[in-house]
Amino acid sequence: MNSFSSTNSQSGPLTGLKVLEATHVMAGPTCGLMLADMGADVIKVEKLPEGDDTRRAVPPQIQGESAAFMMMNRNKRGIGLNLKHKSGKKVFKHLATNSDILIENFRKGSMDRLGLGYEQLNAENPGLIYCSLSGFGQTGPYADQGGFDLIAQGMSGLMSITGEGPGRSPVKVGAPMTDITAGILAAMGILAAYIHRQKTGQGQVVDTSLFEAGIIHTYWQSAIYLATGISPTAMGSSHPLMAPYQAFETEDGWINIGAANQNNWERLLNVLNASHLAKDKRFLNNASRMTNLNDLVEILSPYFLTKTTQTWLDQLKQAGIPSGPVLSIASMHADPQVRSRKMVTEVQHSRLGSVKTLGMPVKFSLTPASPARGAPILGEHTLEILKEHGYSQNEIKRLESEGTILIGS
């Protein structure tokens, strides 16, 4: 495989890994983001003339730049490339030949029709790891369908177990759970395939989907169904297997209590000054508490309304009972643990200067990794990337004049 230099100043365990990301919106960009944050040189290919659809996911904007796009595409270099042009496809193939990994999240068959599918690229680069992210995967009766997080959440069963309870409207998880999880699964699969390539020299296809990303979040509920034949339903913040393990309203907010095992249950009763409940047959052990969960919540709830969240947190912490506040996004950003773990950080954007973003969720003792560069403006690194790949100034001018590439400024 040919190599090329990079001006990317990234650090991390994947430094030196070359990734070509032909993705848009959320799932694919999440995968690229994970790899970029760990040090890989990720080149994001954006369609022309508009670029990634997330550039138009506004508001909010920061001085004309989409906040959503900047969040998902920091640490990447960007090239504007028209894959509908013959010369654009040729440029893409050249980039892929010099890459370790390719990520794409178009509908099944789209890349093949462009002549950029795995078989076509593998012929030139047999070590290429080719990751396809889609709504339902590359096989099966739904493979040709497009995928969206909302649809995947519904079909995976997630929306049947999310919400206040039976008889209420289905509720999706507030975050795009299947998009983000699919991106993380794809990154995991890519790294497993990379280890295989290190051993054998062989590349391969990595295939995952939003649908499967949603399904794996039903581990507990699927275990219940497979064991009992009963399909679990929504339980609010309650746990399907342990109690009390949920949110309770306090005098000034909400608090989560994790008093699921017997020791913590007994400690909780001491904190509440409700030791008499230890002898109540409905609550003698976890199984009985789950059977009588509605009664348990009805009895415990008034206790928590008598004091503030912080007062309860102090008392619960002293007793060794797992607990925590229900924070808003703003409060979470200000939390001292979040700050200490550098989960809110800053990157340098070429046009905006310092921009706040979320940090790297995995820490490495020997190869520290963190966000460094801001998301690219459309076509920002086109000139730089093509020069690295051996294109002359005249060739670049020709590609620009025919509308094959965009050189950002």
Strand order of the largest sheet: 8-7-6-1-2-5-14
Query: How would you state the average pLDDT, rounded?
Result: 96
CATH class of the largest domain: Alpha Beta
Structural classification: alpha/beta
Q: Over all CA atoms, what is the radius of gyration? A: 25 Å
> Please, what is the CATH homologous superfamily of the largest domain?
Crotonobetainyl-coa:carnitine coa-transferase, domain 1
Q: Could you say what the CATH topology of the largest domain is called?
A: Rossmann fold
Largest sheet geometry? 7 strands, mixed
Structural write-up:
The chain is α/β, with parallel strands linked by helices and 409 residues long. The chain has two domains: 18-216 and 339-406, Rossmann fold (3-Layer(aba) Sandwich); 254-325, formyl-coa transferase, domain 3, CATH 3.30.1540. Helices cover 38% and strands 15% of the residues. It is built from 17 helices and 14 strands. It has helices at residues 27-37, 67-73, 86-97, 110-113, 118-124, 149-155, 177-200, 210-215, 219-228, 262-272, 286-291, 293-304, 309-319, 329-334, 336-340, 382-388, 393-401; strands spanning 18-22, 41-46, 61-62, 65-66, 76-81, 101-104, 129-134, 205-209, 245-249, 254-258, 323-325, 344-349, 353-358, 405-406. The strands form four sheets. The protein has a seven-stranded mixed beta sheet, sandwiched between helices. Strands 9-10-11 form a three-stranded antiparallel beta sheet, with helices on one face. Strands 3-4 form a two-stranded antiparallel ribbon. β9 (245-249) and β10 (254-258) form a beta hairpin. α1 packs across α7 (177-200). It is elongated.
